[in-house]
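Lay summary. Proteins are chains of building blocks that fold into shapes, and those shapes determine what they do. In this project we predict the shape from the chain. Here is one chain we studied, written as its sequence of building blocks.
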Amino acid sequence: MKAISFGAATRCTTQVPQQKVRRAAVRRWLKASLSRISVMLHEWHRRRRDRAELGTLDERILRDIGVSRTEVLHEINKPFWRK
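And here is the predicted shape, written in a compact code that computers can read:
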């Protein structure tokens, strides 16, 4: 097993096996990837929920917020992954 020595720079004889360094890097990458996926899934769920709610609004409320029924239909027919 190849090891990385920090002895010359720190005057310490501790050695960290290269395999442990790789595992730590993989864990950090995996954690960051899972975090990004989680954020994306939450965003998709929010869009789906918001579009469904938009479809339930009546004409009076749509006029109040300045949105036409055509715009609503266009928005609620978008796939959840599109902005």
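What the prediction tells us: The longest helix spans residues 18-55.
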